[in-house]
Each structure stands twice: as C-alpha cells, then as structure tokens.
Write a structure and sequence with these properties.
Elements: H1 2-35, H2 40-62, H3 70-106, H4 109-119, H5 127-141, H6 153-175, H7 183-206, H8 215-242, H9 245-251, H10 254-265, H11 273-302
Length: about 300
C-alpha cells in the first residue's frame, strides 16, 4: 500500500511540473498572436471555447454520462469563476504595472495557499513546504524589473487579486472533492463555465473579443487551448488528486522558469543575470522539495 501511494504521489509531482511547464510555454504563443493585433481577451475566450468543444467531442465518442449533482455543478462553477476572475485581474493589471511586475506579484499565490490552508483550514504545512515557499518567493523577486512600469496602486491590487483568486481556485479543487470527478467531465464543465463567464464579461464590460483574424492566429489560439485548458488542466487535476494544493502550487513554479526560457530561446527576449539567479534558486528549491518528499516516502515504506 505504501509503495502504491508513493507511486501515485510521484505521478502527482510530475503532473504538477508538467502543468507548470505547459502553462509557462503558452505565453510564447499568446505573445506571437498579440503581435498580430489579437487581444488577450480573445485568446482567453477561444482557449476555453476550443477546449470545451474538444472535451465535448471526447465525451460524445466515449459516450460518457455528464450528468452531475447540483452540489458538484455549483462547486465547479465556483472554481471556474475563480479561474476566470484570475485571468481578468491578471490581464487588467498589465495596463498599470507591466507584464513583468504583474506576473511577479501573481506568483505570490503559493505563499497565499500556505496561509489560507494554515489560517482558515487549520492545516499545518510541512516544514519543507514552508521553507520551499519562502525560498521560491525570493527567487521570484529576481524576476521583478524596475523598468516594467511604475507601481500604480490599482495595478498592484489587481495583481494581488489574481494571486488571491488563483490560490482559492486551487483550494476549491482540492477541498470540495471535485478533483475526484472524471477528468474529461471536469475539464468540460470548467471550460464551459469559463467560456460563459469570459464571454459575459466582454459583452458588458471589456468589448475586446473579436473572432476576425488570420488562419495562423486561429491555429496558435488552438495550440494555446490544447496546451493549457486541456493537457495542463488535466495535469493540474491529477496533481492535486495525488498531492495537495500546497505542494502543487509550489511545484507549478516551474511555470515562470519555462516561460522565461522560452522567451529567451525562441522569442529572443533578454535573459538577465537577475533572471538566471531567480531560475536557479527556484530550481534548487523544487529539487530539494521533490528529493526530500521522495526520501520521506521511501523511509516510511522501508519501515
């Protein structure tokens, strides 16, 4: 039993890393599409719309019964609302404090997950997770660049809101039991609810979604959808099912590293010494976390 549990925990750990990498690579395609005049809200809307259609096709082929209880549907809607508002808040903050500063503040969510689980749910975090969270946050601070914009209070509030909402999204998935739902069914409903929420927000507030774009832009949007709302979301669900929201939030810090490296290698964006130091600090911290977790489970198994 212990060996089986260790096996599934390793699956959860690598799923969390894979989710972070997939989410981290996707901004490269979003950047390319944005340079062609496509708004970020359009990419976000299509990301959920396309993934919803893909999940629906899978459901029809497998003839899956998608009926869920009102309780499960309400919890899925709550998770989707947090996810949608995270995206809206993050994209909105970029207008005030820039992408670098906004993303840096957003990645404070692992600390928020630890705080919420400790203060609200009375769950004492493991010492290794707490030390990893603090070390990773130090590494994330190295990604912050002064030239990214002035620290406008509204932008900072929006960026912090995105971090708060995303941490709550992770906790909802773990604590409400919806991670136990069939991954395809969960993916379908989350994509459906996000499509409706983002579409409604644009209809009444932002007015930035436009489906008039080139075929290559459609292909890139489809790639973003498949990478994030299909594969990365499935990995997220598997990771939280076999680990926890705290461990997942820490391991998903592979996202900013993969994003920075893709920007440097493919988009030829500048890669400063500060970012290199930040990447090394985060990688070292995550390797320590994975290594200590593996050793701990192995010791329990041997005993």
């Amino acid at each position: 039993m212990l060996r089986e549990n260790r096996k599934y925990r390793l699956i959860g750990i690598f799923s969390a890393l894979a989710s972070g990498v997939l989410f981290g690579v996707s901004p490269m395609f979003v950047s390319i599409v944005s340079q062609r005049g496509v708004s970020s809200y359009t990419v976000c809307f299509l990301r959920f719309l396309i993934s919803m259609l893909l999940f629906l096709a899978c459901i029809m082929i497998r003839r899956i019964d998608i009926r869920l209880s009102v309780r499960h549907l309400s919890r899925l809607f709550l998770a989707s609302l947090c996810n949608s508002l995270t995206t809206i808040a993050l994209y909105s903050c970029y207008r005030y404090i820039g992408i670098s500063a906004g993303t840096t503040i957003h990645f404070s969510y692992p600390i928020l997950v630890v705080l919420f689980m400790t203060l609200l749910l009375k769950e004492k975090p493991e010492r290794k997770c707490l030390s990893c969270a603090i070390t990773c946050m130090i590494g994330i601070l190295f990604f912050f660049e002064k030239r990214s914009g002035s620290a406008h209070i509204e932008g900072i509030v929006l960026a912090l809101s995105s971090a708060f909402l995303y941490s709550f999204y992770l906790i909802v998935i773990e604590r409400t039991g919806i991670s136990e739902i069939d991954p395809v069914i969960m993916g379908f409903y989350i994509a459906l609810f996000n499509t409706v929420i983002i579409g409604t927000y644009d209809l009444f507030i932002s007015h930035q979604i436009s489906l008039q774009m080139s075929a290559s832009s459609w292909i890139l949007c489809a790639l973003v959808s498949i990478m994030t709302s299909v594969f990365a979301t499935l990995c997220l669900q598997i990771a939280i099912r076999h680990t926890s929201s705290i461990l997942f939030s820490l391991l998903s810090l592979s996202e900013p590293i993969s994003s920075v490296l893709c920007g440097f290698l493919i988009l030829h964006e500048p890669f400063s010494i500060r970012k290199a130091i930040g990447c090394m600090i985060i990688i070292a911290s995550l390797l320590y976390l994975i290594g200590s977790d593996h050793q701990e489970k192995k010791t329990m198994e041997d005993s």
